[in-house]
Design brief:
This protein has 171 residues and is α+β, with helices and mostly antiparallel strands. The protein has 6 helices and 7 strands.
């Protein structure tokens, strides 16, 4: 990225911003639906992975799911499938779209999340596509989160330092 930015006479962060902007322009509703269906197929086949989190519904404490969003944004991106339980059974969406969209606002800084709805077995499913964040670390309630295998957990102080230094940005 640095080499390409240098050749274009711009900073790496400017080039990254342009890349994200143009990727967003290409993201049509049809592409989003197709991606959601493909991801749902993969999730139903493989279950939870480093890049896929399954949840039957938004927990009472919505912050629990916000922590998953923060961890994915910090750790390279991923998808959260709402309406499929840990045993890969389709249970359907029981939460309002407003509540789902509100989850994103709990995470600081606010990550880029694409929301797509699809259906399976006559039940609505929501897929949150969490993009790798522009910032090195994402927080919920002032705690940084990372993805560790198929789990999301608070980041350790040395991990926070590593992530900040890796991005070359001040803490």
């Amino acid at each position: 990225m640095r080499r390409a930015a240098s050749e274009l006479h711009m900073s790496p962060s400017t080039l990254r911003s342009l890349k994200n902007y143009y990727e967003a322009l290409l993201d049509t509703e049809e592409e989003r639906l197709e991606s959601a269906e493909q991801l749902l197929d993969r999730a139903l086949f493989s279950g939870e992975t480093t890049g896929i989190e399954l949840t039957a519904r938004i927990p009472e404490q919505a912050r629990s799911l916000a922590k998953e969003i923060a961890a994915f944004a910090t750790s390279g991106g991923g998808a959260i499938v709402i309406g499929v339980d840990d045993n890969r059974r389709v249970v359907g969406l029981t939460d309002s779209r407003e509540r789902i969209e509100g989850l994103i606002q709990i995470v600081q800084p606010t990550p880029t999340v694409r929301i797509a709805y699809t259906s399976r077995e006559g039940k609505e499913i929501c897929v949150l596509f969490v993009q790798k964040g522009r910032e090195p670390i994402y927080y919920v309630d002032s705690r940084p989160y990372v993805r560790d295998g198929s789990l999301s957990r608070p980041a350790k102080p040395d991990e926070v330092m590593h992530l900040v230094l890796q991005r070359g940005e001040p803490a």
